[in-house]
Amino acid sequence: MPVVSPTLSNLTGGGSDGWEVFMRARQMIAAGTPVLELTIGEHDIRTDPSILAAMDKAARGGHTGYAMVPGIVKLREAVARRVTERTGVPTSVENVMITPGGQAALFASHLATCPHGSKALYIDPYYATYPGTLRGVGAVAAPVPAHAENGFQPRASDIDAAATGASSLLINSPNNPTGVIYTRETLEDIAEVCKKRDLWLISDEVYDTQIWQGEHISPRSLPDMAERTLVIGSMSKSHAMTGSRVGWIVGPANIIAHISNLATHTTYGVAGFIQDAALFALEQGTALEDKVGAPFARRRELTVAILNKQNHIRMIPADGAMYVMLDIRETGLSGEDFANQLLDTHHIAVMPGESFGAAAAGHIRVAMTIADDAYVEALQTLCDFAAELCE
Ligand code: PLP
Fold first, then answer.
1. Ligand 1 atom, smallest distance to 100 CA
2. How many separate helices (H) and strands (E) can be counted in the chain?
3. Residues facing 97 on adjacent strands
4. What fold is seen in the domain 65-283?
5. pLDDT tens digits for 244-253?
6. What residue owns the CA closest to ligand 1's atom 2?
7. Bridge partner residues of 234 (DSSP)
8. pLDDT at 18
9. Which residue, of 38, 104, 111, 179, has the fewest CB within 10 Å?
C-alpha cells in the first residue's frame, strides 16, 4: 500500500497532542455525566445577529461565487485602515491578505518565510497547533522557553541562543495560554534580536481586542520592523466568528503577493458572503468588539476575587485574552495530574499547562468560557480541591 507522506504522519511529532483531558471530558459528557468545561477557547455567545444578517444579505444578494483570491478589496481596505489607526504604521491594500482564519494565516506565513529544513522558532508556552504548523511547512520547530519566573515574558538572550539556522520567530501577545501581554521592553528586545539575526517575525495578534490591563503593542510598529514582520489577525476571537473562518496576514507587499499566489494553489480564497459579514463587523468599530470581550473582562474580575481569598494557587496576571493560567505547583501535582484528578473527582475540565509546552508544567489553563455563575462555582471548587491537596 502507498504510504502517507511523513510531512503529515509526523505532524504532531508522534507524542501526545495535549488534548487527552479534553477528550476524556467529552467522553464523560457523551456517557451522560455533566462536566463543567473550562477547556477550549470558544465564546459562550454566538456570532452577533447583526453580523449574521449582513452575511445573509450578502449571500442572498449573490455573493456566492468565487471571491477574489487575496480577499475583496473593501475588506482588505478595512483591515488596512484598522491596522493603520491602531498601530500608526501606514498600511494599504497590498499589505493585506484575507485568509480562512488565523490558523491558515500562520501556515501560509511560515511557508512563505521558512525554507525547507530551516529552524522556525516559537515561544513555549504556546498555542497547541504551533509545532505542527511549523513541521507542516517542512521547518524544524524549535521552542524557546519563556519562564514562569520571568512572568512568561520571553528573554532576548534565549531567542538569540537558539537563532543559529533559524529563519523565523513566532510570538503571540496577548498570549494563549498564559494571558500575558508582552511589555514594550520585551518586544523591543525581540525586535533587536530579529534584526541582528535576520529573522522574520511572525506576530500572532488574534487576541488584540481583549486587553484587560496594560497596553497591546504590535511589534510591526517598532523601528525597521515592518519590513520583516507578518502580523496574524482573525475575526474568530474579536467578533465570536470562530466558525466563519476569516482572518488575515499583514506584511510587506512583495511577500503578501507570494502568499496570495499560494492561496491560488490551495484555498482559493474565502467565501465572499463571509468577507462581506467580516467587513460589516469591522465597520462597527470597537462597539462590537467590546460586547464580545465583556464576559471575559467580567470573569477575570471574578477570578481575581476568588483567588484573593486563598493562598495555594497563584494566578499569572491575566492581562489579556480569554484564559487564566494558574500555578498549582504547591499542590505537588503536575498540571496533568491535577487536571485529571479534578475531572474525575469534581467533573470540572481544565487544560494541563503541559499541553502547551514544558515551560507551563505545574500550571493549568482555565478558559473563562462558561456562564458567570457556573464559572464561579467551578473556580471555587477548584480552589477548595487545591487546598485539600495542600493540607
Ligand atoms: N492563534 C492563537 C493564539 C489561537 O489561540 C487561535 C485559536 O484558538 C488561533 C491562532 C487560530 O484561530 P482562528 O484560526 O480561528 O483564527
1. 14
2. 14, 12
3. 249
4. Aspartate Aminotransferase; domain 2 (3.40.640)
5. 999 999 999 9
6. 127
7. 247
8. 76
9. 111
Which three cell numbers, joined as nine digits, stand for 117? 529544513
Q: Cα of 130 to ligand 1 centre, how many Å?
A: 10
Handedness of CA 83, 85, 88, 92 (dihedral sign): positive
Cβ contact 73:93 at 8 Å: yes
CA-to-CA separations, 19 to 40, 42, 182, 269, in angstroms, rounded? 10, 15, 26, 30
What number does the ligand 1 atom closest to the CA of 42 have?
8
Distance of alpha carbon 179 from alpha carbon 210, whole angstroms: 10
Q: 233: part of which helix (H) or strand (E)?
A: strand 229-234
Q: Are 341 and 348 in contact (CB under 8 A)?
A: no
Contacts of 336 (CB under 8 A, 6+ apart): 21, 352, 354, 355
Side chain identity at residue 177, one-letter code: P
What pLDDT is attached to residue 14? 67
Find the residues whose C-beta lies inside 6 A of ligand 1.
41, 101-103, 127, 172, 176, 204, 206, 234, 236, 242, 247
Task: Give, in degrees to the nearest 5, the angle at Cα 173 between 168 and 174.
Answer: 160
The HSE-up count of residue 366 (CA atoms within 13 Å, CB side) is 33
- In this structure, whether the domain defined by 6-46+287-386 belongs to CATH 3.90.1150.10 is answered with yes
**In whole angstroms, what is the distance from residue 315 CA to residue 382 CA?**
13
| Residues lower than pLDDT 50 in the chain | none
pTM: 0.97
Residue 42 region, left (φ>0) first, then alpha (ψ -120 to 50), else beta? Answer: beta
Of 105, 64, 106, 99, the closest CA to residue 268 belongs to 99
Tell me, in angstroms, the distance from the centre of ligand 1 to residue 85's CA.
23
Mutate to test the pocket of ligand 1, among 43, 129, 203, 206 (most ligand atoms within 8 A of CB): 206
Q: How far is the CA of 309 from the centre of ligand 1 (A)?
A: 33
* Whole-number Å distance between alpha carbons of 367 and 41: 6
